């Protein structure tokens, strides 16, 4: 008897341990918004849980999702997720005072994984961006995923299809590993007009600060390593159709001065651009120019970068004038640069721009900025502040 109750006690304790991990499959109702049911269930799955969007289901994410602070949680996107397909519905939500800023928001926590699917047919987050691109619609565009204030975060195998706006923001997150993510933003209407219509400063300036690629092609990685935090980003592929006018940067990478970690194997491929002041821009020396002079780095560290490839960029560089682009964006730029590599000595390896075919609006020679003391590998063009001259790695 005594022995039996002892055994029973052990069995109960063991069961308790097993049940400490919870799994939740997000329910789906055809034709309805699937967000409310998820939000209602979330408070029970904020720790030691898996939250699964199941393969075989296309979930309607018709209203934004904000996750509470999570600990030891994995959010798995094995089904397809779809945004509303009409523009006004989204604009009304984005324009409302309660909108968090992103369609999917993580508000913080520890050990949080956002995982997509390796099955090509499923796990796509479809932003229905085509209509936005075709309309060149830039008003009240939502950001995609805000993965904020997470310590020990992972973003892997995520696949974004035709995003409307910016894709992943990781502000305030530390020790982040992002790898095997895909962003496909290829237009099928060829809504890329290679026209050379001049845009006056007043047309462009309102958009310049925050737009990366018109039509919402998010090609940006960064800002990594703020305040010395550690970020590790690997194996990212951007395949994109086009970057157009009113876009400040084409493909961009930035890490904060004094950061830590590694960004490796990142490819930006097949990009046509028109009227873009900085088609290819890498900086490992980022700081917030709006708040003062470059801080004196106390750390000998910096975010290391390795195996970056910018391949097949074709288009027209916008020759900016100081009224449209504040000079502090890129000190020393002449406005004719197709590529700017602002690297930190001894921390950049194998950063290459290949198959670059660019002209400027006025036909003056295309230029580059690059400091040859900061990198010893061939970057695909002569590494200097001067005209673009292709080298072996650039062919
Ligand atoms: C989650 O699991 C850890 C052990 O893995 C445990 O220490 C913690 O208390 C659990 N949290 C909750 C809210 O159950
Ligand atoms: C972190 O979360 C994962 C699930 O994503 C879990 O398997 C793992 O045990 C967690 N790690 C710790 C230290 O709790
Ligand atoms: C999932 O979404 C992607 C992108 O929209 C689409 O290509 C794919 O066919 C969808 N999968 C299924 C099974 O519908
Ligand atoms: C680089 O990343 C791509 C995905 O963008 C992946 O297919 C490839 O295997 C990675 N290569 C290495 C050497 O990790
Ligand atoms: C950086 O150091 C220089 C020289 O020591 C000093 O003049 C300058 O004020 C410092 N800047 C900041 C932002 O602390
Ligand atoms: C420099 O980076 C290394 C490796 O990432 C890390 O172990 C070390 O703590 C960092 N040092 C500082 C001062 O941040
Ligand atoms: C090139 O980089 C080195 C090392 O960071 C620096 O000392 C030098 O001033 C830079 N040259 C130019 C022209 O910016």
Automatic annotation (TrEMBL):
Residues 1-20 form the signal peptide. Keywords: Cell wall biogenesis/degradation, Disulfide bond, Glycoprotein, Glycosidase, Hydrolase, Repeat, Secreted, Signal. The keyword ATP-binding does not apply. It is an enzyme of class 3 (hydrolase). It catalyses: [(1->4)-alpha-D-galacturonosyl](n) + H2O = alpha-D-galacturonate + [(1->4)-alpha-D-galacturonosyl](n-1). The active site is at residue 217. One of its GO terms (molecular function) is galacturan 1,4-alpha-galacturonidase activity. Its main location: secreted. This is galacturonan 1,4-alpha-galacturonidase. It comes from Psilocybe cyanescens.
């Amino acid at each position: 008897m005594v022995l039996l109750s002892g055994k029973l006690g052990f069995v109960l304790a063991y069961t308790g341990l097993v049940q400490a991990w919870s799994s939740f499959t997000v329910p789906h109702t055809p034709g309805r918004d699937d967000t409310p049911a998820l939000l209602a269930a979330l408070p029970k799955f904020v720790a030691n849980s898996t939250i699964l969007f199941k393969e075989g289901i296309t979930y309607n994410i018709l209203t934004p999702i904000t996750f509470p602070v999570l600990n030891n949680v994995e959010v798995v996107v094995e089904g397809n997720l779809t945004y509303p397909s009409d523009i006004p519905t989204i604009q009304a939500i984005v324009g409302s005072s309660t909108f968090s800023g992103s369609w999917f928001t993580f508000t913080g926590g520890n050990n949080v994984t956002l995982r997509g699917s390796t099955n090509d047919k499923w796990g796509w987050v479809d932003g229905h961006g085509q209509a936005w691109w075709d309309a060149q619609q830039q008003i009240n565009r939502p950001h995609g995923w805000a993965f904020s204030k997470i310590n020990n975060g992972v973003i892997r195998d995520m696949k974004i299809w035709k995003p409307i706006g910016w894709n992943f923001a990781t502000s305030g997150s530390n020790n982040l590993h992002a790898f095997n993510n895909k962003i496909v933003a290829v237009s099928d209407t060829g809504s890329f007009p290679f026209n050379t219509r001049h845009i006056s400063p007043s047309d462009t300036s309102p958009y310049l600060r925050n737009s990366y690629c018109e039509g919402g092609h998010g090609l940006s990685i960064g800002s990594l390593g703020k305040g010395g935090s550690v970020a590790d980003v690997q194996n990212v592929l951007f395949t994109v159709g086009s970057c157009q006018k009113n876009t400040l940067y084409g493909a961009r990478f930035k890490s904060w001065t004094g950061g830590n970690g590694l960004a490796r194997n990142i490819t930006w491929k097949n990009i046509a651009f028109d009227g873009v002041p900085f088609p290819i821009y890498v900086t490992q020396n980022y700081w917030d120019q709006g708040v003062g002079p470059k801080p004196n780095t106390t750390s000998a560290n910096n975010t290391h970068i390795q195996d970056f490839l910018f391949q097949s960029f074709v288009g027209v560089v916008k020759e900016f004038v100081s009224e449209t682009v504040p000079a502090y964006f890129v000190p020393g730029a002449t406005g004719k640069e197709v590529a700017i590599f602002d690297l930190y000595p001894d921390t950049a390896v194998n950063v290459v721009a290949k198959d670059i075919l660019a002209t400027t609006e006025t036909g003056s020679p295309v230029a580059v900025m690059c400091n040859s003391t900061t990198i010893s590998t061939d970057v695909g063009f002569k590494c200097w502040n001067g005209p673009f001259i292709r080298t072996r790695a650039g062919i």
